[in-house]
Design a protein that fits this description.
Layout: H1 13-22, E1 27-31, E2 38-42, H2 43-59, E3 67-71, H3 76-87, E4 91-94, H4 101-111, E5 115-118, H5 123-129, E6 138-141, H6 151-154, E7 161-162, H7 163-167, E8 184-189, E9 199-203, H8 204-214, E10 227-230, H9 242-249, E11 252-255, H10 262-272, E12 276-279, H11 281-294, E13 303-306, H12 313-323, E14 326-332, E15 339-342, H13 347-350, H14 354-361, E16 372-376, E17 391-396, E18 419-427, E19 433-438, E20 443-445, E21 448-450, H15 452-460, E22 465-475, E23 479-488, H16 496-504, E24 515-518, H17 532-538, H18 546-550
The structure holds adenosine-5'-diphosphate.
Length: about 550
């Protein structure tokens, strides 16, 4: 027997409609890409302009299923583009500007993007690859006529026009929605840390459900009483859902544009009264460095979600002890829309003194309703949730990819419908999941596994260390041994002995790195995490000093 409730397709245009109807006057604040000045608009105005943009798309012949790309920072224009594209059933393809130009061209071609909406910053990048992107027939520069680059800078960009000229004077009554909730609405490629980038094709339904899921109090809990600084980019898995949960909840949104350095972030936190934010660890390390250097204060920020890569203990403690900000450690992937788990404390954990909470807060957290998690061994057998047995983390749910765009990578679900995340993890009896490593980053030493994440987090806890990367390097006796690369904070000096003796009391002896190398730069990938592929290639023939000793 079927229920007798209304069939109300879960399409994301309804989120923008809702915001315009019920939160029309709530502000969306943007740091302008053009000049860094702060400008203000509202959900009501964004809705009108998004509709005008939909009209422009229709006139350009864009309709259901067509891919329209954006190459931009978090701004109100980017939100207008996002809803204007999705509202007419086209697919908003958020391009990651941090990709190598060849990868960018590969992705544009793979997606067969028809139009690209580009921020001023990325015009040169797009101009450099456009010749190799025959499907793109038009380019919209996300600015006004007065800030359009001169013709020679636009190069061969086809029919380039400014965003403001493109939408101005158009009717704002283009119909939205009216299609199946399983219609595609967003496309985001993983950054290719495992081979060619692969497209994750979100549906209206998956994004709508993800929005409701992130609004749970123990997930992100966005509320109309919040002011959210959306640091995590819209091109990084939907800004972790914030570009949806902001308008859905009526929270005031602050979009940082092109400036993600500590000083600029701090300024917005304070001047806009931000209560909540989300970003990868490196952004927060930049903020804390700035605060230390300037003796800056944090007055309104209450909680931050940190994810994308493992959050070091030092970050959790400094935010708590020095600034009274609660860190929620979260895990997710492009393939999970992206939120998979969040480390909101249970009442039992919260009742402990903060020091004793830290081991739980360091874990990536528990699964919200709507996400199923389990651990499996290499043979596909389920493993116990005992907090010590690591296994492959498997995930299921309405917000999880069933396949990649155009079938890349073949069948990505196992026989029971689980998606293999490629992460190794434990799950404890209280349900807290902890990532031990990406399966391919684990350092395999004499049959034992060393977590590169553990080593990096401990090294970053050293007061002189800014960033640390650990990789396995070939070793004749042990197969692999850890090599630690350390970037020191500006102006600091340290010896390998100093770092190793810091680590000695914090990891088992056999897990200590065989060598510590000080470097000026640690390569970060397109989503802000340490690029282990580059590091492994760079040090593939590196001779560890312990090799002679073992021979
Ligand atoms: P990409 O793979 O394109 O770099 P994703 O954001 O999809 O971008 O990466 C997802 C991966 O990031 C996860 O599979 C996991 O390895 C890692 N990750 C995400 N959050 C965390 C976290 N809190 N701790 C450790 N690793 C994380």
């Amino acid at each position: 027997m079927l229920g007798l409730m209304q069939d109300w397709p879960l399409t994301v245009d309804k989120i923008a409609d809702h915001a315009a109807r019920w939160h029309a006057g709530r502000e969306v604040v943007t740091r302008r890409v053009e000049d860094g000045r702060v400008e203000r608009t509202t959900y009501g105005a964004i809705h009108t302009r998004a509709k005008q943009l939909s009209h422009a798309l229709r006139e350009a012949g864009i309709g259901a299923g067509d891919r329209v790309a954006t190459l931009g920072w978090n701004t109100s224009r980017h939100m207008e583009a996002w809803y204007g594209i999705m509202g007419v059933g086209a697919v908003c393809h958020t391009l990651n500007p941090r990709l190598h130009p060849e990868q960018l061209a590969y992705i544009i071609n793979h997606a067969e993007d028809r139009l690209v909406l580009v921020d001023l910053t990325f015009v040169p990048l797009l101009a450099a690859v456009i010749e190799h992107c025959p499907t793109v027939t038009g380019v919209v520069v996300m600015t006004d006529a007065g800030h359009m680059p001169p013709a020679e800078k636009l190069g061969k960009l086809p029919r380039a026009i400014s965003f403001e000229d493109w939408i101005s004077g158009r009717p704002a009554d283009t119909p939205w929605g009216g299609f199946d909730e399983n219609t595609a609405c967003g496309l985001c490629y993983t950054s290719g840390t495992t081979g060619n980038p692969k497209g994750v094709l979100y549906s209206h339904r998956s994004n709508f459900i993800h929005t409701l899921l992130t609004m749970q109090a123990d997930v992100m809990g966005a509320s109309i009483r919040d002011t959210i600084l959306a640091v995590v980019p819209m091109f990084h898995a939907n800004a972790w859902g914030i570009a949806f949960s902001g308008p859905a909840s009526g929270a005031k949104l602050v979009m940082p544009g092109a400036r993600l350095d500590g000083a600029s972030i701090h300024e917005l936190l304070e001047t806009e009264g931000v209560t909540f934010s989300a970003a990868v660890p490196t952004v927060w390390q930049g903020l804390l460095q700035h605060l230390r250097a300037t003796h800056g204060r944090i007055t309104t920020l209450k909680r931050v979600v940190i994810g994308g890569s493992a959050c070091p203990e030092s970050l959790i403690r400094t935010f708590n002890d020095d600034y009274g900000v609660e860190v929620l450690h979260a895990w997710g992937m492009t393939e999970t829309s992206p939120l998979g788990t969040v480390g909101s404390p249970t009442p039992e954990v919260e009742a402990l003194p903060f020091d004793q909470q830290v081991p739980w807060r360091l874990k990536q957290g528990r699964a919200p309703v709507g996400v199923e998690l389990t651990l499996k061994d290499e043979g596909g057998r389920e493993l116990p949730h005992d907090g010590v047995t690591p296994g492959r983390l498997m995930v299921k749910g309405a917000i999880v990819a069933a396949a990649y765009f155009r079938g890349e990578g073949g069948d990505i679900l196992d026989g029971d419908g689980w998606f293999d995340t490629g992460d190794m993890a434990t799950i404890d009896p209280q349900g807290f999941m902890q990532i031990t490593d990406r399966a391919k980053d684990v350092i395999k030493s004499g049959g034992e596994w060393i977590s590169s994440i553990d080593i990096e987090n401990i090294a970053v806890g050293h007061p002189k260390v800014e960033l640390a990367g650990a990789i396995g390097v070939k070793h004749p006796k042990w197969d692999e041994r850890p090599l630690l690369l350390v970037k020191l904070l500006p102006g600091e000096t340290a010896t390998r002995e100093e770092i190793l003796s810091w680590m000695e009391s914090r990891v088992a002896k056999w897990q200590l790195p065989d060598e510590v190398l000080f470097v000026d730069h640690i390569p970060l990938g397109a989503t802000g995490k340490i690029d282990k592929k580059v590091l492994r290639a760079r040090y593939q023939d590196y001779q560890l000093p312990t090799v002679g000793a073992a021979a």
